[in-house]
Write a structure and sequence with these properties.
It contains six helices and five strands. By secondary structure, the protein is α/β, with parallel strands linked by helices. The protein has a single domain (about 5-140), classed as Ribose 5-phosphate Isomerase B, Chain: A (3-Layer(aba) Sandwich). Helix 1 crosses helix 5 (about 115-125) and helix 4 (about 90-100) packs parallel to helix 5 (about 115-125).
């Protein structure tokens, strides 16, 4: 069986978290697509989030993890892609519900508001939680907008 592939990316505020989570994912046997950034130098988060969303849309990654200071900018950017459902989480229950009820395929982490330990716990929860479907599936099917 092939490894599950997870895409990860963020801006300078999320860089240290990204590196920590990337290491965790690789240690746990995931293949990782790292769309950057690669330093603490100030960057524009859309430059790193659009490639992550495109990798998921192309089927190169199953799920994504995005990280910035508040989690908002990266989530807003990712959610511009019709096939992305990015959810900001600040605790494990939110991460779990994002998968169970919303079939989120991208977890957005607010690095300035959660510890690295909590971020790792949320990632594990997110990756190990399945979508419940049923009534939630009907609702998720109504999210995308046709252009």
């Amino acid at each position: 069986m092939s490894k599950r592939t997870i895409a990860i990316g963020g801006d300078h505020a999320g860089f240290l978290y990204k590196e920590n989570i990337k290491s965790l994912l690789e240690k746990e046997g995931f293949a990782v697509i790292d769309t950057g950034t690669d330093s603490l130098d100030s960057v524009d988060y859309p430059d790193y989030i659009h490639p992550l969303a495109e990798a998921i849309g192309a089927g190169k990654a199953e799920l994504g993890i995005i990280i910035c200071g508040s989690g908002n900018g990266v989530a807003m950017t990712a959610n511009k892609h019709q096939h992305i459902r990015a959810a900001i989480a600040w605790n494990q229950e939110i991460a779990s519900l994002a998968r169970q009820h919303n079939n989120a395929n991208v977890l957005s982490i607010p690095a300035r508001f959660v510890s690295q330990r909590l971020a790792r716990m949320m990632v594990r929860t997110f990756l190990n939680t399945a979508f419940e479907g049923g009534r939630h599936g009907r609702r998720v099917d109504k999210i995308a907008v046709s252009c």
